[in-house]
Please model this.
Amino acid sequence: MSEAFVDAARQAGFPCNSDFNGANQEGVGYFHLNIKNGRRFGAADAYLKPAMTRQNLTVFTDAQVKKVVFEGKRSVAVELRHKGRDRVLRANREIILSGGAINSPQLLQLSGIGDRDILENLGIRCLHELPGVGKNLQEHVDACVLVSSRKNSGFTASFGGLLKMLPDTIRYFLSKRGKLAKSITEAGGFIKSSDSVNRPDVQLHMLPLLFDDSGRDLKLMSNPGYSVHVCVLRPKSSGTVTITSADPFAAPEIDYNFFADPDDCKVMVDGIRQARRILAAKAFDDYRGEELHPGADRQSDEQIIEKVKEKVGLVYHPVGTCKMGTDRMAVVDPQLRVHGLEGLRVVDASIMPRLISGNTNAPTIAIAEKAADMILEKAEGCDI
Ligand SMILES: Cc1cc2nc3c(=O)[nH]c(=O)nc-3n(C[C@H](O)[C@H](O)[C@H](O)COP(=O)(O)OP(=O)(O)OC[C@H]3O[C@@H](n4cnc5c(N)ncnc54)[C@H](O)[C@@H]3O)c2cc1C
Model:
């Protein structure tokens, strides 16, 4: 089905691209994947595990940091709950927050860093006012075109579908090869939503199953079908992450504010139309059943966006809530040090000022690599 998608896109007039990370991003093709020996090879595998034997590294698991402790404007320790026990860890040199775009701003707010009104309303003393903490939340807002299939060649979450996967499951456990050693999202593309834009503003993810609501809709998924997910690559809408309590174990409020900017609606509607063009091409003739979502009867901009909003999704790419910069709303400076404070950096996806036009894992690793260089230079006495 992934091959059908690439063929269909070519038939519909979209360029093919064998390397989205090469000189030109535009086109359809296959994604690069972080897979080694049949498993996703994450940052822990690549960076942490090889360093675990070092004398100067201690990893606490089942631990949650509650706040950063300050002496004046200098961060000196973190308070944490570790295996049910409260502890304080002091820092000799500096503290690096890498809680991600949801939890790094949460931790700063819990520590008294952020928008004064929000903090004081919750009874938290504002140690340092930084109004940008938790603002500027950006994410790839996503919607799908779901089509039922006349051929049962993709994945289904039904008993029969799972049984059909048995040979692949055995093969995977014996050799770490085959379908299960790949990604369910092999094919996709970066396309222009219309001729009026000069570079791709939409990403497509093709899935050989009826995948909606982050895979929670098992009833839908038990039927044969396929999905093309359409996401807005550079959304203009932005939202917020805000603590709702001084309790570090309470979840913050996450408001993506999707589609607040009408331009995002336009890109999404045009992107859905482009996905439909691909799905209508000859390569899908043997598969094509009924368009289940948004539904073939939904053709006008208003009808499409209304339906999209019923099932709006995301690509798990939150960024921007501790943005790097030098303006009033910036949280960290170009060396990722929190503005106005000493001994505290943020190193994760939250520091991206703008959401990048692609998946966020590799860019976050690039941020971490760059930060490591900057921290080492500082440790070695260079004034940067
Ligand atoms: C389901 C899913 C699928 C994804 N798929 C892809 C993909 O295919 N390709 C891609 O490029 N990107 C993908 N991403 C996005 C990618 O994973 C993120 O962009 C990247 O992990 C961001 O890194 P980070 O360091 O900013 O945050 P994270 O990776 O979220 O790391 C933050 C860490 O901090 C820990 N933490 C948070 N708060 C605390 C606290 N108070 N105390 C202690 N620890 C804390 C968290 O447990 C977590 O381990 C996906 C994300 C998700 C959720």
